[in-house]
Amino acid sequence: MNNRVSFSLLYTFFHCQLWMYGGLDSNVFLQYLAWVTYPVVLITFSAGFTQILAPQAVGSGIPEMKTILRGVVLKEYLTFKTFVAKVIGLTCALGSGMPLGKEGPFVHIASLCAALLSKFMSLFGGIYENESRNIEMLAAACAVGVGCCFAAPIGGVLFSIEVTSTFFAVRNYWRGFFAATFSAFIFRVLAVWNRDEETITALFKTRFRLDFPFDLQELPAFAVIGIASGFGGALFVYLNRLIVQFIRKQKAINRFLMKKRLLYPALVTLLVSTLTFPPGFGQFMAGKLTQKESLVTLLDNRTWAKQGIAEEFDYIGQSQAWKHPQVNVFVTLVLFIVMKFWMSALATTIPVPCGAFMPVFVIGAAFGRLVGESMAAWFPDGIHTDGTIYPIVPGGYAVVGAAALSGAVTHTVSTAVIVFELTGQISHILPVMIAVILANAVAQSLQPSLYDSIIRIKKLPYLPELGWGHHEYYNIRVEDIMVRDVRYITLNCTYRDLHNVLLTGHLKTLALVESAESMILLGSIERAQLQSLLSLQLGRPRRLEYIKERATAEKKRLSVVSNPSSDDGSHRASQEVRFQVRGHCRSRIDRMESHPFHLCLMGCNLRKIAPQTTERIAEWEEMQLDEQVNFNNCKIDPAPFQLVERTSLHKTHTIFSLLGLDHAYVTSIGRLIGVVSLKELRKAIEGSVTVKGVKVRPPLASFRDSGTSSSENEATELHKLWDRHKSMSLPREHTPSESDEKSQ
Description:
Blueprint: H1 2-22, H2 28-53, H3 62-69, H4 80-95, H5 103-121, H6 131-150, H7 153-164, H8 173-193, H9 219-249, H10 251-259, H11 263-275, H12 291-298, H13 329-347, H14 357-378, E1 383-385, E2 388-390, H15 394-410, H16 415-423, H17 429-446, H18 450-458, H19 472-475, H20 478-481, E3 488-490, H21 495-504, E4 509-513, E5 521-526, H22 527-538, H23 540-561, H24 567-594, H25 611-625, E6 642-644, H26 649-659, E7 663-668, E8 671-677, H27 678-690, H28 711-725
Parallel strand pairs: 3-4, 6-7
Antiparallel strand pairs: 1-2, 4-5, 7-8
Helix pairs in contact: 1-2, 1-4, 2-4, 2-11, 3-6, 3-18, 4-5, 5-6, 6-7, 6-8, 7-8, 7-16, 9-13, 9-14, 9-15, 9-17, 9-18, 12-14, 13-14, 14-15, 15-16, 15-17, 21-22, 22-23, 23-24, 26-27
């Protein structure tokens, strides 16, 4: 439903621009103002509205969804405000006519709908309160976003799996297909109800011949399209990242743009609109056509070129935009590809809700059309097979190019299925698959996908892919990359030790070991649980209890030392002492609530407190801090995930990806020797790719002690540890708990 409404608004917006442009044909300058002002206003409004309401709505949405589906919580990313900002901002951005896409934002919008529906249903209780169920809903929503964007439910499910999941739960497979099929059905039914279509059909229906769609001699040309698209996709990702990094590294420009947030999108829109102005440079690159109109003409199965002579072109309908009296179609297509390439890479850096799939798809179709028209010019009479002449179909080359380039940029193979559903024909299934696979092979060896590149730019906590062809992943072990200085607490530690550990770091989970000498790992405790322990020991109830005891003791002391005639005086003295103690403690309690771990550093106004009372409170604090911690009321995870020191980097990456871990302890025969988090794993993977920043295996790694410790010694050691812990009762959890966030 949202997709249909957005398309209607886009249609209205763009035709309003064409109406303003066409009504001023008597004055070129006024035409230019109308052509440029309209997109600048829409982009500026989109950027401003999104920045004010919900900055999380900026960009594609797929990189963030990739991070969320891994189990990382991104604040304010799946809220109603973000939904409103995304829908309105995306509508204005696409209505401006800029080379921006909508597939990524639709994935985000569908995920927002799923999250909001789950939140609403959780009010009634049931399974929707479960976190795992919400992840399943979001996985299905990602398929819905792609499916309703192109009316391609099968390709949508496959594409969402490829770009958002490292490991996909098969039980979510039918849910994704069910939701994506209904979304695509409703999208196309609404088109029929609005009388945009006569019946439910493909979005960009083609009419290629089915009896002989291509000849085997054309396969090398399709392979060339795939290889070239692989290089082009890697270049697009590199150029997009280069633009963002250049702006960020130029501190003066960055500070200026941070103050004038709407200036950058306005300037980029002004530049792109000026270059696409139809009477200007836009006449050489079909600047008057929208992305949809450009794609329709590029997929046309009629040949434009005949021996490359412009006068013999057969232009019908919207194809006339590609006609120019001075240059032929090859020059027009080359200019279109080159200009749209860098303009799309630049436009996708604008802080508005937008994606990059559709611009890349159109550029790939233009490149395929260029190759197809070249083949038609080289073989004007077609290819002879058994005496039958079959002319070249340039539209088929456009389909292959669109699938190959979009697949190279996103590192997906499912774009082949998407183009089949988009065009309604699978006649070119073999060349499309060949080109997409070759494009992926080239692109993946050169650059990360566009979504992984954005994740690196935004520094989201996501584990990068290993890639292929890097044998060092199997040679690097956990002990080479782990952090050996582990923050831990012992079973017999004091509250002072607990206080000091919490002050020295910001880890969300701490390891619990038997003692500093043995370092036997007993479990892990969340930071919030340790905060509760410290608050209970030095919190308000304990302090009030101490105040009451001190006041009672002081009252008894005064009643004993005083004579019967001085009852009133002793009562007043007791009240005075009680007032002083309570006033002093109230000040310290209030400070404790705001800084629960700076209890020993809290000060007070000593001018109003008796020196003896202050000393007694300080002594009481010191006594409480020196007591041993009681873990009986603490929720302990008795089995945190552990790795052995010889686990390879490849296996560690697989385990982290499959289980959604963000840290794991490294143990040797039960002893805690280190910890590995996403940070260390990411550095090791990126470092091993660039051959920088990785501590590779030590020089004598090949001589590791296979003989220094025998299995018998290890068994004996384990028996000793078991005998030592037989009589020891570990603290148990009173209620089951799930950790939402863990340490890094």
